[in-house]
Structures are given as structure tokens and as C-alpha cells.
Amino acid sequence: MTRLLVLNGNTTEAVTERIAAAARAAAPAGVAIEAATAPYGLPLIVTRADWLLAGPPILAALAAHRGAYDAAVIAVFGDPALEAAKLLLDVPVIGLSEAAFHAAAMLGRRFGIVSFSAALRPMFEDCLDHHGLRGRCAGFRMGPPDAAYPAVFGAAEQAALLALVRDSIAQDGAEAVILAGGPLAGLAPLLQPAVPVPLIDGTAAAVRLAAALAGLPRPARPRAARPLSGYGPEIAALYAGSGPS
Amino acid sequence: MTRLLVLNGNTTEAVTERIAAAARAAAPAGVAIEAATAPYGLPLIVTRADWLLAGPPILAALAAHRGAYDAAVIAVFGDPALEAAKLLLDVPVIGLSEAAFHAAAMLGRRFGIVSFSAALRPMFEDCLDHHGLRGRCAGFRMGPPDAAYPAVFGAAEQAALLALVRDSIAQDGAEAVILAGGPLAGLAPLLQPAVPVPLIDGTAAAVRLAAALAGLPRPARPRAARPLSGYGPEIAALYAGSGPS
Amino acid sequence: MTRLLVLNGNTTEAVTERIAAAARAAAPAGVAIEAATAPYGLPLIVTRADWLLAGPPILAALAAHRGAYDAAVIAVFGDPALEAAKLLLDVPVIGLSEAAFHAAAMLGRRFGIVSFSAALRPMFEDCLDHHGLRGRCAGFRMGPPDAAYPAVFGAAEQAALLALVRDSIAQDGAEAVILAGGPLAGLAPLLQPAVPVPLIDGTAAAVRLAAALAGLPRPARPRAARPLSGYGPEIAALYAGSGPS
Amino acid sequence: MTRLLVLNGNTTEAVTERIAAAARAAAPAGVAIEAATAPYGLPLIVTRADWLLAGPPILAALAAHRGAYDAAVIAVFGDPALEAAKLLLDVPVIGLSEAAFHAAAMLGRRFGIVSFSAALRPMFEDCLDHHGLRGRCAGFRMGPPDAAYPAVFGAAEQAALLALVRDSIAQDGAEAVILAGGPLAGLAPLLQPAVPVPLIDGTAAAVRLAAALAGLPRPARPRAARPLSGYGPEIAALYAGSGPS
Amino acid sequence: MTRLLVLNGNTTEAVTERIAAAARAAAPAGVAIEAATAPYGLPLIVTRADWLLAGPPILAALAAHRGAYDAAVIAVFGDPALEAAKLLLDVPVIGLSEAAFHAAAMLGRRFGIVSFSAALRPMFEDCLDHHGLRGRCAGFRMGPPDAAYPAVFGAAEQAALLALVRDSIAQDGAEAVILAGGPLAGLAPLLQPAVPVPLIDGTAAAVRLAAALAGLPRPARPRAARPLSGYGPEIAALYAGSGPS
Amino acid sequence: MTRLLVLNGNTTEAVTERIAAAARAAAPAGVAIEAATAPYGLPLIVTRADWLLAGPPILAALAAHRGAYDAAVIAVFGDPALEAAKLLLDVPVIGLSEAAFHAAAMLGRRFGIVSFSAALRPMFEDCLDHHGLRGRCAGFRMGPPDAAYPAVFGAAEQAALLALVRDSIAQDGAEAVILAGGPLAGLAPLLQPAVPVPLIDGTAAAVRLAAALAGLPRPARPRAARPLSGYGPEIAALYAGSGPS
Known about the structure:
Six copies of one chain form a homohexamer.
Chain A: E1 2-8, H1 13-26, E2 31-37, H2 48-64, E3 71-74, H3 82-88, E4 93-95, H4 96-107, E5 111-115, H5 121-130, E6 137-142, H6 155-172, E7 176-179, H7 187-191, E8 199-201, H8 202-214, H9 233-238
Parallel strand pairs in A: 1-2, 1-3, 3-4, 5-6, 5-7, 7-8
Helix pairs in contact in A: 1-8, 4-8
């Protein structure tokens, strides 16, 4: 049995439940999903400042569950705390943008990024550069920057999203399309029948890739204890030198 | 049960057996491995011309087994026939270089490529550009271009390889290292205890990632029949329009 | 006398004739053009899979004429078999996309790519990356993906094409424009008077550049015989070790 | 009078004093330097995890002094909290790596990066990508990864550093050289007479560039209050909506 | 007192006066501005040929004033003579495009370029590549290529410009916007109140950055005398070996 | 008959004669070579400042011969005046670095650059970026920066050069090698028999490519007269509006 921790980096429990459901739906056989919520921080993560401040609570949650998972998903587009977590933990950690980009790149030569609102574009631009996959990106198709996400994605919203997906394919030459933004989680399987290229859902991609990475050999990295002040006991434990993993 | 076809693109059965063993060792629970050998072509794939000529027999083998696998691995560094196969088949297909690069990129910020002989370097250069991941590559550490691969990797050969791995880490700043070249398959778990960063084996990476991709939604792509002459019935079938998958 | 082989990579003789005429019109003094047709494969090359399957018949035709030409043009946008041919033959071989890109880059700082139909865009995207000249490309202006090429380019079609060329110049800043796609061969000299930047025709560019490269010194590359199965005698001959060139 | 806040992102007061002295030595006329120390976190910032955890205390310190400076320098190589600070504050904020790269790029076509120890290389690799200036970097010349920084840079250490600088110029073609790493602060003016290209000190570059940016027009960016939990009153104030600046 | 030479590279005195005023308005305390005009050449610099021919008179003017300034600004978008001047003079020299790009990059993750007319686009494309900052550019928003610059920027022209700025932000994701083209000098502070991201004026950026660089240590570069014919005494003096600076 | 003007951009007549001989040796049948020397400027072009100052005399010489050639070669590594000449003249103009890069790229996937002295490296770095072909370059192998070019390339010098060529192939993976630097002109055919990849001579490449481009259609670009002062009658004529070509 492979155990995955899927960590909602914001503080909204309802989002955690939605992510957990999506993760469980995507999990391969033999993989158990545990979901957790950031213990403090932001109810919604939107800006670069949010990503930074979401980092310590994400690390704290990852630390609190140490030993209870074989790989972790930081279930936030923008991948807050990702590089720190990769360094501090002895198991693979993967982010939502990272997973979506890599899965899309393996399923199509050039991938488009589609979102209901343009508010997340700076984050995706940053992530494309950070993960070094800008050359595989065909471009963005996004709604207006101030679009409010609807509570429910009804027929009209789905039609609007499909129109963006089709533009991405026809105008930008996308051969796979990422549905970007937390509220779009779970829509990919629904819309896929109407779309002739793979639709990528970040949570599904991350769960499947995290399970894949969990099975690869990994180095034992003994870590010396290093001084750190001002953080709670979970994060402090990550700086106390190698513990169980 | 997820069924993976692991296809040896050269015609040497002994290599197929070695790859099959490595694939089975790396397969997640619930994943069955079937191995196949290219029906014609080259006993050893080394040059760019080899990659082209290995392509049709690889497509033929993929076509011959159609319907019997949920994802396929083209188990050749250099990824011959990869883009054609992604287009013609209704299931995910992944190459060894592609898998090694993506796995390495998810496990370390910059990855090194280590090989016993420099003969494969042009292929890896081409693949880095093709997959758009050159920016994540820290560089190459390779033996002399005319190094013959030893029949067995004994202590001396392992020590030589470890020295290259350590140069990749210390001189090039690699944070993950790909062991490149078919004959190195299976060495990663053996050498990992002596290495402080993840060692990537192409076959293991490809098997795990193929299983991951097999579970994602995919488009139904009806294909019109198109005329093709001069190829055998398997490849011809791929051009006969959508069949079972 | 420099002898050029201009090879139509598809099996349609009428296309070979059209290409041969365009090649002869563009050939410098002292250069003789011989045209040949791929002995099998596809009547029309459109997809990545087509490029792969067009490769062996192209190699076969190049091999069949070995010794009778000083340089060869693979007269297919997308450059199938190009890298294999460069490796296996002792004379320069150039592809249509390759030639168009290099000629355009020497005649304008940034070149646009214009086509009647968007169907060839993935091919051009791939070729830009493969030849490393994406940074010189100002962008694409193409008709709808499902546009059927007209049998004859009358005044209306020419006007539509000119409109795309002008958008490429005015909107994208193109300083040279490639007319992309086999059916556009021969139009560049016709449209040039109406366009203030160089219009690049792939066949003409390839013929002129192939003749240029034919005159440069080249290495003698003795090749050891290597085993290959499943291909006809022409390709087999390329693997039989160095022959006459 | 322009007021600069120079913020030491680690918790070591002695480092703050050294940075403050270097900053004052480099400050233009009419610029007053105030130095501050991160209120908690790490005594020494080395790893990617450190950068993340140094972020909130840096934001807290920047927030605590809000209204008392016209521009800020985050005086840590690696630029922790930089993008969040740029977003949350109404005055320009610049990081040490960012400043060193931009100053070096304006003073030489290609810049080398020289350091006593290779431990900081991953950070510099990340920063080159983040700031988009990798194409201007000629390469790294660094001591061994485990080199301990000497308490004092005596003649022997200076000679060792000069040898690295000369390699950067002669072997890599550097036309400007960044002395990288906090402990090298203040050495540039000392070594410059022996070096034929500009030597860049991060603190000096950042102080001069921050003063430059402080004088440019900037937008008024009213910020809506947004919920945030688990952080102290300084950071909370940054999320309370626009305050004085 | 820091002395800056701001050099108008065209021969139009009225432009020199306008630039001098803008430079003085942007100069930090303790910085004196001297303005000069190219002694010959072009009244208006637009094309790549113009940049080349503007080069020698710019060098002549820089040489004529040698010893009287601590840093120089070549106040022409396109940066004519920039690399030669950096090499031949012992003080920092900065160009308008160079300064605008670096300032914009320090003030926003991705910057847009806005201009009244598209005529300058090729120049900006060239400069982005030359300075290696294309990756930071979000795109161009420009008026028609044949737009004549109005003598005065009245309300209508300002509104048109603001519309382009807003497109750059909303459509391209620009987080800072460069107002490009000499005639736009001085507009940034006027329009800034209506724009939520930093507006960059080339002259202001160059003056502030030149003052910043003037205070950094610089190498003594003795230069051997080298033969040069056909140029006037000022340029000849630059080739006569090291003189006063 | 196609007429090529091969222009030596420095003022040394002996170099012109050597270049003319090399150009004639490489010229295709039906191509006549006329050689010319820059009327003033530098006897040897080495630095970036030299390239700028070599520009106007090169333009003057190109203008003086207008109407007497169908394409021109600026026979200087570093390509001074190249972009201006392309713009001002109605016939193709090609530079030595430009030609060497494009020819090498068409003859090998990745090309090395070999030179007797490292003094030209900054120039080649700049040219790689300018022509957008850095991704095709495998690296530099050069003698010491202060190496004096020998008057004659005897056996010892040729052996030293061959050693650099072999390092480029074996260490850097070069599949074609450019012999860089004027004094190496003419050596490629001599050394080619000892080298297993194509050796590229700049002059030969430029002559063949210029002849190739001369045969392609080109736009009629009427040019309005524009004011220019301070230059001689030849350059002034280029600004007097369209003349005969």
C-alpha cells in the first residue's frame, strides 16, 4: 500500500474535502489518500505574497504527518513551499502546477493553459519559468481578470470554458490543455468527451505522478541539526536533523 | 489491473528479457508488464539513422499488440517512433529518455546525465532539445566515446561510474543523476546507497510514469482511413482508421 | 556540373513534376536537377506519423541514386529522414523547412510563416525547435486548420494569402515571410512584387542552398558495416559500409 | 534625503553591522541607510528551505519599518521574500542577487560568478533563471562545496579568490565578475586594482540601484483587506489593506 | 558631485533640450546633468542603418567631453554605439533601451512595451535579444507603423496611449510598462496616476541607473595605442591609448 | 554570370588579396568575384569598438560599387555593418560569422568554434546571440588570449589547431567545426582530410551562400531620401533615396 498525503495549502476545509474527493477518484489501485489542511495562513491563495505566506503552514503540515506518507502532493496551483519541501523531506513531494505541466508535456507536444479568470496568469507564468517548461507551452486562454468563479459550473460556464479550450487548440496549436485553477478540479473528465486533445486536471495529474515517484529509489540524506527560531515545533523538527520518514 | 507493453526497439531478445525484468521490478502493484521485441531492424540502436529505421518495426509491434495494453513504453534511449506512436495510438506512449528527463526534473532542480561511453551523447543532446528540458540539465559526464560496455558491471566498472556521478554532482551541480544507456539498466538501486541525490533509471522511470498516465482521461480520437503503401499489415492497420484500443 | 537530386518524399508523381519544375527554375547555372519520387509510403505527408513512415522510402530513394548526385534536397516540409540522411550519405542533404528557415534568417532579422491552412503548424513548430531557429521566428499567420488547398491559386486565393503575408509583416513584425506548404511552391516570385519583404519559397531556397553546400569540403567518413534486417536492398546497402559516393 | 532600509535576512547581528557598514560606504550622497535584522529565523541562510523560512521574518521587518524608508534592500543572496515584498510594499524592494546580476549586466556583456564555496551554487542557478539573466552569465568559478569561510580574508584567501576571478575571465570569457556570498562583502574595492574587469559587490550594487529606483514614479496601488491567520501583527498589517508608506 | 553626460545621438538641438529637461527632472540630489548633441549624423534615428551611422558621432561627442563626466547616457532608444563606448571609456555608459529594460525588470516580473507607432518595433526586438531580457518581456502594444508622432500629446493622444497601456496589462500580463520612443519622454509621471503598474520612462531610468553605476568601483584599463584612419581627432584620441578620464 | 563583391573590412591590402584568392577558390561556376578594401578605418579588426568604426567605411565601399554586384560578402568575422547593409542595399549581403554559423548548422547538428587565440571569443559570443544560433553551438576551443597569429601556419601550428579541433569533437560533441579568425582562411581544405566532421571556412561558406541568395526573388524597396550629415558622398548616396542596383 502506497500512502499519499494530499495537502490543501489554504485553510478552507471545504476545499480540502473537494480535493480529497478528486484525489481519491484519480488514485491508482493500492494507493491510499490522506488529505490535510494548512493549519493557518490564507483561505484562498492568489498572489505571490500568498504563496510565500502559505509556505510555512504547508511545511508544518507536511512535518506533522511525517512518517505517515510515501509521497506528498501540495495541492495548490503555484507550488508554494515546493522546493523547501523537496529538500527537507525524505519522500517525493510534487506540486499541482509542476504535475500539470509534466503530465501535459508527456501527453502533447505543446500544451495550452485555460482558466476561468486571468488572475492566476502571473502565477502560471512564474511556474513555467521555474519548472523550465515554457518552451512546451502554446499560450494562455483565460477569462477576464476579475471573473468571479461560479459556485457551480453549470452548462453556461462549461460552454464558456469549452470555448476557451477550443481557442487554445485552434488558435494556439495546443495538443493538450491544462484546466487551471482550483475551482476547475474535477471538470476534466466531464469535459473530455467534447475535446479532441487530453484535458489535464492538476489534482489527478499530481496524485498519479506522486504515486509514480514514490516507487523510485531515493537517497538517504542524513541532515545535520541547524538552528531555527520563531517557528512552531513541527517546522522546528524539520531542522532538528534526520528523523523518521 | 493496468497492462503495460514494454517494447524493446532493437531485435536482441536477451535485451528484451533484461528490460522485462527491470520493468517488472519497478512496476507498481496492480500493473502487469508484457514485453515485446521489435520484429526487425537493428540488434543495437546507436545512431540517428538507427532511430529512424527502428521506428517502423516499433510501430508494427505496438500495432500488433493493440488492445492488449493500457499504456506503452518504448524502451530505447533516444525515443524512436515516439511522436508517431503518441499520435497513432489511443493509449499513452512514453519513451525512455522522455521518462528519465521528466522523472529527474521532478526529483531534482537540475539533473546530470552520466554514461559509460560518450557515443550516446548526440542522442541525449537531441532529446534534451526535443523534450524542451535542456534548461534543467546540468551537463554530461561520460566515459570515452569508444568505451565498450562491459558484459558485467563489476566493482571496477561500478567505481568508475560512481566517479562520474560524483563529478556530475560536485562539478556540475546536479541534484539528480540519470544513468544513461541501456546496459546501465538495473544499476540505479545498487548504486543509490552510495549517492546523496536520486539516481534515475530510464526503464523504472518509464514504467512508473506510463502507469501514472494510463489512469488519466483521454480523448476519443476517431481517425479517418488514409492511404499508405509499402508497409506490412500491422502498420497498415494503424492507417486504416480507428480500431479497438 | 553540380548534380542535385530533388526528392519528393510522397508517392504522388504529379507533385514530383511540379517540384522538379520549381527546382529547375531556381537552379543556378551549372547545376543539373534530377527529380525522384519516394518508392512507397504516403500520397500526402501531413502528420508526425507520416514523417516517420516517409523516412525509409526517402532513404531508399537516396540510396538508389547514390553516386549520381552531389547534394540532395528532401522536398518535404517537415524534413523527414533528414538527420538519418545527413549521417548515412557522403554528400550534403537539406530539407525544405531547414532551407526555408536558414534562407529567411539570412534575408530578414525575423521571419513570419504563412500558410493556407493551419494543419501544418505542428510540423513547423517542431521544425523551429529542431533547427534551433525559433528565436528568429516572428509568428504564424495561417488559414483555418481544415482549409482545403485549392487546385489552382486564382486571384481570390492569392489575395487571401497576401492578406496573411501583410498581417505577418504589420502585426508580427516579420522582415521576411516563408510561404509554407507544398501547394504554395512557385507562388513566391508571383507575389513578390506586391510584398515589401523577401518571400521565401522552400524549394527554391533548398535548391540554392544545396548547390552552395555541395561545393564545400567534406570529410571522408568510412563506415563499418552494421547488421540491419527487414529493409530492402537500397537501405541495406547504406548499412553495408562505405560505398561509392 | 532618500531613506534606504537595508535588511539582513538572517538573525546574526554581527552580519547586520557588517552589511550596514558596506551599505553606508556605497551609499550616494543624500541617501541615509538604516539597517535592520530579521526578528527570527536562521542565523545563516544557505538552502532553499532557508530562503522560504527567512521570508516571513523579512516581511515582518519590512512591515515594521513601513513609512520610514523610500526603498528597501533584502541583503541576502538568493533574494528571499523578494517577490512578495515587491507586491505588498509601496516602495521599490531589491534583492542582492537581483542587484548583482543587473549591475554586472550593465557593466559587462557576460558576467562570471565567483565564490569561496560551491554551497551557494544552486541558489545562484535558481536566481539566474528567476531573474531571466542566465544568457548573460559566463559561468561559475567556485571553491569546494565544503569550504569553510575564513574568519578573516587574509592574503592567502585573497590570492585564492583572485585565481578564481582570473579563471572566470580567461576561461569563461567573463567581462564582469560578481563576488558572491555574504562573507565576500567589502572585498570588491580591495581586489579591484588587481582585476581588469568590474568586480561586483552585491550590497554596493543593491544600495546604488535601490536609490536609483526610489526616484522613479510609482503607482498608487490600493489594496483590499484580505484574511490571513497565524502570523504576527506586522505581517497581518500588510494584509489589512493599504496603509501609510 | 556626480557629473552625468546625457548625449542626444541625433543632431536636433530641440530634442537635446527636451532630453536635458527630462534628465534634470529625474536626476538625484548631488548629480549634475550636462547635455550634448551628436556633432553630425541624423536629425532622427529610426532604422538599423541609422543606429550604425549615429555611432561615430556619438563616440566623437563622448570623446570630446572625456574627463568632464562620471557616467554617460546615450539618450537614444536602440542604444547606438553602446558597446563601443563601454569599451573605450573609463566610466559607465548606459543606453536608453538598456536602462528601460533593466529598470522595468526590477520593478515588475514581466514588462510590456508600448509605443505610439510600430516603426520602432524592430529596434526593440533587437535590443531585447541584445540585452538578453526577452524572457522578461510580456509583449508589444503599438500604434500603426506609419503613425506620425503628434507635436503635442493632448488628451486624445494620451487616451490612445493609455488604451495601449491597459491592453498590455490586461491582455499580455505586463506588470510594468515601458513608454517607448523619444517623443514619449516626460509622459510617464503624467500618466502614472491612471495606471496601476509602474510606467517606465527611458531617460529617467537611464539617468538614475547611470548615477547608480557611477559610484561602483571600476577597473583601470590601460589601453595600448592602435592605428585608426579616416576619423576626426576626437575618435582618434580614443585609439591613442589611455588618456585622462 | 553572378557577380559577388567580397569586401575586406579592414584596410590591409594583403588581407584583401588573401581573401580574394580564397573566395575565388570557393566560388561556384558562373560566379565572378570582385574584391575590395575598406577605404579607411583599421588595419586589423579585433574589438567591439573596431566593429562599429569599421561600419561606415564598409558601407562606403558597398555604396561605391553599387550596381556592380549581385550579392556582397562582408569578409570580417563579427559581421560589422551587416544589418545596416542588408537594409540599405537592394541585393543580399552576408557576413562571415553569419555564413559560418548557417553553413555549419546545415552540415552538423552542433558546431564547435576553434581559434588560434581566444581574443575573438567575445565577438563570437555576440554573433551567436545576434544570429540566434547559440543553441546549435557546442562550445569554444581556443588558444590563449594573447596568442600571436603566426605568419605562416607550419606543421606545428597545424598540429596545435588539429588538437583543438579534436577536443571540440571529443569533449564538446561538435559535429561540424568552424575555423574562426581571418588568418585561418584557406586552412579548412588542408586540414579536412585529417578530420572526421566538416571543417567550415568562413570565406568559402560566405561566398557559396551569397551566390545562393543572389538567385532568390527580392522585393523592390523604394527608399525615400533622408537627411544625413558628416559622411562622404558614397554613404550620403545611400540616404539619397533609391538608386540603381
